[in-house]
């Protein structure tokens, strides 16, 4: 018998981490919540101003992804009651679409008694996103090293170092993944491919062994960031100079425009680094919000809601926003 109502919490994610293009992802402690229940009529309640423009009918991504779960599981639940609130800014390079996909998959799967495995959810999500880094991080938590060959995705999860902290600078403009990908070349020089292979391998080794000092050398990229830098004024300066202000390394978060710096939580230069990021962007006329985040060791979680429990609107107004 289907569960009556579930609540999902899914973390944001950052992808690439510099050289790990379409293969490295890390979950962040910024979250989206989805309440989902089987209903007689479909209603979609989007909470918060940042959800303006998101469809509130059956063309909504969460609704469509939930139906994919039901179809694969061989069940039919065409009408759903969905509510969503997200701290994750849209189209800023922090995995907003991946979190919606993973949240929808996990919520729908929980409603039908977990008929699909985590791996099946991962395969569906990767096919939808066309790359496994963001969805893998939001699904499994921690740091995910993954590939997708067009047919199947595989991944290994790394536990984030306890001293790893993340500073993001979120510019006040959106940048679509399609636009950020359109500026990249279809072919690259062999030396650039080798550069990224060596640096991404070194970065994975540094992250998996806790060798934080090696990150500054490993977190370099020749495949995508040089081509995307003109889309984000100030980005090149941040990439070149962030380590001089206390960062372990810096990168474009996903397709951007958010800039990301990895930091040793024990550093005494955090305020200096934050000022550098904000002022570098401001010199280019770009206002940016900065957030100090931690890697989220926990991926997506689901819980059954019982009668009388607070709805998502009440949760947002009470626990989340206070």
UniProtKB/TrEMBL annotation:
Keywords, alphabetical:
Amino-acid biosynthesis, ATP-binding, Cytoplasm, Kinase, Nucleotide-binding, Threonine biosynthesis, Transferase
Give the EC number.
2.7.1.39
Annotated ATP binding sites: 89-99
Name under which the protein is recorded: Homoserine kinase
Pathway where this protein functions: Amino-acid biosynthesis; L-threonine biosynthesis; L-threonine from L-aspartate: step 4/5
Q: What does this protein do?
A: Catalyzes the ATP-dependent phosphorylation of L-homoserine to L-homoserine phosphate.
Q: Which family does it belong to?
A: Belongs to the GHMP kinase family. Homoserine kinase subfamily.
Where is this protein localized, as stated in its record? Cytoplasm
């Amino acid at each position: 018998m289907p569960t009556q109502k579930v609540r999902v919490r899914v973390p944001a994610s950052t992808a690439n981490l510099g050289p790990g293009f379409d293969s490295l992802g890390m979950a962040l402690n910024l979250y989206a919540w989805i309440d989902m229940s089987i209903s007689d009529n479909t209603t979609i309640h989007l909470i918060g101003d940042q959800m303006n423009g998101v469809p509130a009918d059956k063309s909504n991504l969460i609704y469509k992804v939930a139906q994919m779960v039901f179809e694969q599981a061989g069940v039919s639940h065409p009408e759903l009651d969905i509510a969503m609130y997200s701290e994750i800014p849209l189209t800023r390079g922090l995995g907003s679409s991946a979190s919606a996909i993973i949240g929808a998959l996990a919520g729908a799967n929980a409603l039908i008694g977990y008929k699909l495995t985590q791996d099946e959810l991962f395969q569906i999500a990767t096919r939808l996103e066309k790359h496994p880094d963001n969805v893998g991080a939001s699904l499994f938590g921690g740091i995910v090293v993954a590939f997708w060959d067009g047919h199947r995705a595989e991944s290994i999860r790394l536990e984030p170092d306890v001293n790893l902290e993340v500073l993001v600078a979120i510019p006040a403009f959106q940048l679509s993944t399609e636009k950020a990908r359109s500026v990249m070349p279809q072919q690259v020089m062999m030396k650039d491919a080798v550069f990224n292979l060596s640096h991404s391998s070194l970065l994975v080794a540094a992250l998996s062994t806790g060798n934080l000092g090696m990150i500054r050398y490993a977190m370099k990229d020749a495949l995508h960031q040089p081509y995307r830098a003109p889309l984000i004024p100030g980005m090149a300066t941040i990439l070149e100079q962030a380590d001089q202000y206390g960062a372990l390394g810096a990168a474009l978060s996903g397709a951007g425009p958010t800039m990301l710096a990895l930091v040793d939580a024990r550093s005494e230069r955090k305020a200096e680094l934050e000022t550098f990021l904000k002022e570098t962007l401001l010199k280019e006329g770009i206002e940016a919000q900065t957030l100090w985040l931690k890697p989220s060791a926990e991926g997506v979680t689901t819980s059954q809601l019982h009668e009388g429990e607070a709805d998502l609107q009440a949760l947002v107004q009470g626990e989340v926003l206070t």
